[in-house]
Amino acid sequence: EDQVTQSPEALRLQEGESSSLNCSYTVSGLRGLFWYRQDPGKGPEFLFTLYSAGEEKEKERLKATLTKKESFLHITAPKPEDSATYLCAVQAGGYNKLIFGAGTRLAVHP
Amino acid sequence: KAGVTQTPRYLIKTRGQQVTLSCSPISGHRSVSWYQQTPGQGLQFLFEYFSETQRNKGNFPGRFSGRQFSNSRSEMNVSTLELGDSALYLCASRQESSYNEQFFGPGTRLTVL
To answer: Given this model, what pLDDT does residue A93 score?
Structure first.
């Protein structure tokens, strides 16, 4: 069964304290791995798509990487506005549905 | 380019009633998917529509249904509402191409009393 697990569930950082979020997955025929950011009461905001092991993408303070079993979202020198829930999702097989992890709640304190 | 829009943003219903939610995709996007988000189960796939046809369906009871119109706008319907149907219902649209990104709307918050 396709499965996505995110860790940690919650993470508290001081402003400027870099860290990484983990997304491990078990799927048949990965077609893409996606990172989203979700603020309270809002829909998920698209961040990155990764398609193959070894791929990396960057956007401002965020960098996403992908291996054959997991993905990392690295946050460099975070700011309070980076506080949100970060969701990882995979698309597998011949379907367009996304299978989501439970998310990591990130809080960045000044 | 305008994003995905969903109406209404908030709904309060009572058990046994039915509800219809609406989604307008990003212009040019022909695929629309619906997801349910709850604190206990997270984000779960409901169904996907493309060219007015349901292409995929998640593991939800038949009380959950949807449709898509020729302009790609989509509606989902939940009949005989139960307390457990209280959730944020999210719509996502996707452009049929080599890119798989799905873009989400703000959601409809449904509360069943």
So the answer is: 72
Chain Cα centroid distance, residue B15: 20
DSSP for A34-94 reads EEEEE-TTS--EEEEEE-STT-EEEETTEEEEE-SSEEEEEE-S--GGG-EEEEEEEEETT
Task: Please give the C-alpha separations between residue A57 and each of A25, A76, A89, B34, B91, in angstroms, as whole numbers.
Answer: 18, 14, 16, 27, 26
Which residues 2-61 of chain A have a CB within 8 Å of chain B? 31-32, 34, 36, 41-46, 49
- Tell if the CB–CB gap between A96 and B43 is shorter than 8 Å: no
Whether the pLDDT of residue B99 is over 70: the answer is no
